[in-house]
Amino acid sequence: MLKAGVLGAGHLGKIHLRLLAESDQYELVGFYDEDAINAKRVADEFGFRAFDNLNELIDQVDVIDIVTPTLSHYQCAIKAIEKGKHIFIEKPITNTLEEAKGLIDLADQKHVKGQVGHVERFNPAFLAVKDQLDQPMFIETHRLAEFNPRGTDVPVVLDLMIHDIDVVLSVVNSPVKKISSSGVSVISQSPDIANARIEFENGCVANLTASRISLKNMRKSRFFQKDAYISVDFLEKKVEVVKMKDAPTEPGQFDMILQNAEGIKKQIYFENPDVAPNNAILDELNSLANAIENNTTPVVSLKQGKQALEVALQIIESFNSPS
């Protein structure tokens, strides 16, 4: 078993602590939180060991799980990597691209594994259809959330939209050609609502919308590709797959047939892939353990985390750029 330590014991950090303690692939050694009062509260509530010194925790583990505010991701990760420790780091990978590059370079030098916490890659609804996503040419995503002061210190693109940016980049095998976007600040100092249009060199277009001041929560993505429409509801963990094939010569009574202007007939049919329940956070943590033990590339590598950050920052930069 890999010995693990957690940096940060806030809302998400406490979830990671509990799941690492439950995992059969890790031995949870303890955690460090710079807020001593909070650290004592968490230690008393859960019984996990709170370390007074960050370096002492790093020295005693194989893996460091970084669940601190984004501004501290780089410094925490560098300290761990310098000591040859593998890292799990919550999204976004770092605050700047320069930090991400430095982190990746050092990880390569030290031969350590790193995974970024883009948890939607482990959402059971996405997993149910991932293998059916084949060169989508139009993607539309909506990630809407009710207002929560936590996270409003960063633009909604880095808080919410980056989840969908990562998913889109993972299924579109093509470089980004052009990005245009708009963002509006309603309550926060940074944009609370954003829309981005990402054009890829292969012709695919992704239209992403994110809001953190909505009246209801929504996390849906729709993928359009040749002869197929695939809808993923990340929140309700449901999928919808609609496909087309050449119509039979003699359609059945209940077959759904479409005919285009050229007279070509297609049959519409529906698939209902099984959505296997899981704990996405536990699965992403365990997947890093598998990558370490099997010497394979993590599902969401540090380089992929950097790519998602790069696109997110380009979207933010585009807010104030003339189209």
Tell me what portion of residues adopts beta-strand conformation: 25-35%
Give the overall average pLDDT: 94
Q: How many β-strands, per DSSP?
A: 14
Number of helices: 9
Q: What integer value in Å does the Rg equal?
A: 22 Å
Derived from helix and strand composition plus strand pairing, the structural class reads: alpha/beta
CATH superfamily assignment of the largest domain? Dihydrodipicolinate Reductase, domain 2
Reported CATH architecture of the largest domain: 2-Layer Sandwich
Across the major sheet, the strand order is 7-8-9-6-10-11-12-14-13
- State the CATH class of the largest domain: Alpha Beta
Q: Termini, distance in Å?
A: 53 Å
Approximate shape: globular
Order of helices and strands: EHEHHEHEHEHEHEEEEEEEEHH
Quick take:
The chain is α/β, with parallel strands linked by helices and 323 residues long. It has helices spanning 11-22, 36-46, 54-59, 73-82, 97-110, 124-129, 156-171, 280-294, 302-318; strands at residues 2-7, 26-32, 63-66, 86-90, 114-117, 138-144, 176-184, 193-200, 205-211, 218-225, 228-233, 238-246, 256-259, 265-271. One of its GO terms (molecular function) is nucleotide binding.
How is the topology of this model organized?
Elements: E1 2-7, H1 11-22, E2 26-32, H2 36-46, H3 54-59, E3 63-66, H4 73-82, E4 86-90, H5 97-110, E5 114-117, H6 124-129, E6 138-144, H7 156-171, E7 176-184, E8 193-200, E9 205-211, E10 218-225, E11 228-233, E12 238-246, E13 256-259, E14 265-271, H8 280-294, H9 302-318
Parallel strand pairs: 1-2, 1-3, 3-4, 4-5, 6-9
Antiparallel strand pairs: 6-10, 7-8, 8-9, 10-11, 11-12, 12-14, 13-14
